[in-house]
Specification:
The complex is a heterodimer of chains A (about 250) and B (about 280). With about 250 residues, chain A is an alpha/beta fold. Chain A has ten helices and ten strands. Helix content of chain A is about 35%, strand content about 20%. In chain A, helix 3 packs parallel to helix 5. With about 280 residues, chain B is of the alpha/beta class. In chain B, about 40% of the residues lie in helices and about 20% in strands. Chain B is built from twelve helices and ten strands. A six-stranded mixed β-sheet of chain B has the order 6-7-8-3-9-10. Chain B has a four-stranded antiparallel β-sheet with strand order 2-1-4-5, with no helix packed on it. Classes of the chains: A alpha/beta (about 250), B alpha/beta (about 280).
């Protein structure tokens, strides 16, 4: 479980908190979508969740390990895999294959197992044809898949993803959703930021942030029923919900 | 300003990997004042294609003509071309570098050697077009702005050069709902004042809302060039290209299949609202 207890975060020199007194629990085998207007604190919040940013006050515990305890950070980072919004911020090597192997090499995994895992990840994320290509020659969507593959290959217990689908094409998006529901079955907890209400619909839980506070938290179907409130928070509702309101049926969307 | 691609091919060559054919046999023509979406799976060549529109990449085969600029000619006047064709790249806000918003937006026009007054006038009008008041935002540091505002500043920097052709690569990626709506308003406005707007997007609902015409790329080839109405009837082709029918179109079809009368050929919630009212 990732547990946030009264987490507050304020960037140095800022006068206001970006995250204000947030308490949340994220469980394994659960997919949570995180939505909210630009500037509502989504990216800051998830960066607090693996100790990349240390909360100004409050505490974050990953399976009981506090991010304030420096000796736990390596273990926390091993448990919590993170993919940034712009893939270029985390791609470090010169070929697709090396990029995927990079994290495993650092864990000192035996070569045979590593080769197997890398091959598996190349296949899973459809990166086989470009395994020897330099990452900067890939398209935006391909780089985003690569960044995801390089983190997922480490089999983290929790996956935290900042708008992992922003650059993906529709098929890539569908595959991403299928992938996270598969890792959820094997016990991974997933938290991802999205701007797409349709993507959020398929999740177990939806959290909407507003100015660094939790505005809504619950099953997506229930939240999207509150069309006006969701819109007020600067968040879109699924097209099907909007249509059902227009047609006056008020029925649930699927 | 007419854009003409004739049998264009392009390969990426690198030291470490086999050459990769990014575009092949691409032919189309875009007339002044069109609103065109370019769609296709990741790696289908969309970004490569638009980088040919201002000479950032030069075709390996075939020819590219933008107005009177023939880009097959190695000595083509790229500086002149780029004052007519403005390109907004993916995540353009990471390229903001000046100390203030006004200076950043003025960077392009200053390089066109315009008079100070003309630069100032165009900066103000570009800021106005993207919905940022120059007297409020002009003196601010770009880093004080939200992601959506920074994106609009980056777009203003291109609009300030008053290009006849505006080309944007995934202009709404990573923006929230309202930010997306604001970008769509900017594109609609620029189209309405008679300019050519060409944009790349993975968001098929946005394509449906904005574009008149859609180019579909698949593995570097143009597999469709026509109206959105025609495209969204081609379910097999969309599937082949790794694309989807817009959510709105699918939802309306589903409602229709349940025997409810729904308006046909509507592509935005606005249109649905208008049409439903007419029906009452």
């Amino acid at each position: 479980m990732i547990e946030l207890n009264h987490v507050t975060y304020r960037y140095r020199d800022d006068r206001e908190d970006v995250i204000h007194d947030v308490s949340l629990q994220f469980h394994r085998s659960q997919i949570t979508a995180l939505m909210g207007a630009n500037g509502s604190g989504k990216t800051t919040l998830i960066r607090c969740m693996n100790g990349l940013l240390k909360c100004t006050s409050g505490d974050v515990l990953v399976d009981g390990l506090s991010v304030h305890d420096a000796e736990h950070l390596i273990e926390i980072r091993r448990k919590v895999g993170m993919v940034f919004q712009n893939p270029d911020n985390q791609i470090v090597t010169t070929t697709v294959e090396r990029e995927i192997a990079f994290g495993l090499e650092n864990l000192g995994i035996e070569p045979e197992l590593m080769r197997r895992k890398v091959a598996e990840a190349l296949r899973q994320f459809h990166l086989e044809p470009m395994q020897d290509t330099a990452p900067h020659l890939l398209s935006g969507g391909e780089r985003q898949r690569l960044a995801l593959a390089a983190v997922c290959v480490m089999s983290p217990d929790y996956l935290i993803l900042d708008e992992p689908t922003a650059l993906l094409d529709p098929r890539g998006r569908a595959e991403f959703l299928a992938y996270i529901s598969q890792v959820r079955k094997s016990g991974t907890g997933v938290v991802f930021v999205t701007q797409s209400a349709e993507e959020a619909c398929g999740c177990d839980r939806l959290i909407i942030l507003d100015s660094g506070r939790i505005a809504m938290d619950g099953p997506p179907a229930g939240i999207f029923r509150e069309v006006e409130q969701v819109h007020r928070l600067g968040v879109q509702v699924p097209v099907a919900v909007e249509l059902s309101v227009l047609f006056g049926s008020g029925s649930d969307a699927d | 300003m007419r854009i003409e691609f004739e049998n264009v091919g392009f390969n990426y060559v690198s030291m470490t990997a086999a050459p990769f054919t990014a575009l092949s046999g691409l032919s189309f023509r875009i007339e002044s004042g069109e609103m065109v979406a370019v769609v296709g799976a990741s790696g289908s060549g969309k970004t490569t294609l638009i980088q040919h529109m201002n000479g950032l990449l030069r075709a390996a085969s075939g020819s590219v003509r933008i107005g009177e600029h023939d880009l097959t000619d190695p000595s083509a006047d790229l500086h002149g071309l780029r004052s007519h064709v403005g390109v907004v790249f993916q995540f353009p806000e990471i390229q903001l570098f000046e100390e203030t918003v006004a200076l950043d937006v003025a960077f392009g026009p200053r390089n066109l050697c315009w008079t100070q007054d003309k630069v100032r006038e165009h900066v103000a009008s570009a800021m106005d077009m993207v919905g940022l008041d120059v007297s409020v935002f002009g003196p601010m540091n770009p880093f004080q702005l939200s992601g959506g505002e920074r994106r609009r500043v980056a777009i203003a920097g291109v609009l300030a050069m008053d290009p006849s052709v505006l080309v944007l690569d995934e202009p709404t990626a990573g923006l929230d709902w309202r930010g997306t709506q604001k970008i769509e308003t900017i594109l609609r406005h620029y189209h309405r004042i008679g300019r050519t707007v060409i944009f790349v997007s993975h968001d098929m609902d946005m394509v449906a809302r904005l574009a008149d015409r859609v180019l579909v790329l698949n593995r570097g080839r143009l597999i469709f060039d026509g109206t959105k109405q025609a495209l969204f009837r081609e379910e097999k082709l969309l599937e082949e290209a790794g694309l989807e029918t817009p959510y709105l179109v699918r939802a309306l079809r589903k409602i229709a299949s349940m025997g409810v009368r729904v308006p046909e050929d509507v592509y935005s919630m606005e249109e649905v609202r208008t049409r439903l009212k007419i029906k009452d």
